[in-house]
Amino acid sequence: MNWEFIQATADQAKDINDLVNSAYRGEGSKRGWTTEADLLGGQRIDSEGIRHLISKDNSVILVAENEKSGAIDGCVHLEKQEEKCYLGMLTVNPTLQGRGLGAMLLEESEAFAQFWDCGSIYMTVIAQRTELISWYEKHGYVNTGEKKPFPYGDEKFGLPKVDDLQFVILQKKI
User: Which domains are delineated in the chain?
Assistant: First the structure.
């Protein structure tokens, strides 16, 4: 498969929202290995949240658009925060996971962060997602040892199914 990596526009918000929620939540997300369905219920994000990220200053959502079908098969959110770049919402269609698209999205993200003159790129990952953390470490990201509490009670982050969720911070110098 071939993908074109482009900046998302507000009119793609619904398709991006559908993709992200399909990869992280619900039974359908279990077709891929990035699911959070055993840890969290509810939605991962909504279309309004996607539009907000797209319109925000120093923020972009990159999408991997299938060159044949035009479908959005992957996406990632990037936000410039002074000399660092925050990476979030890295998503690949569950039926396409394991084909290298996630790694390509990481490469595109790192190139974009360099374009922004950022010296590093960082992310938050739920600590219980050890397989995902290992995947990022394989791609050069390092666990900083810093932890952040999970925002229990804020449904926009999902409905927790376990009591001990927290985030770890992973970072890579670029």
Answer: 3-122 (3.40.630.30)
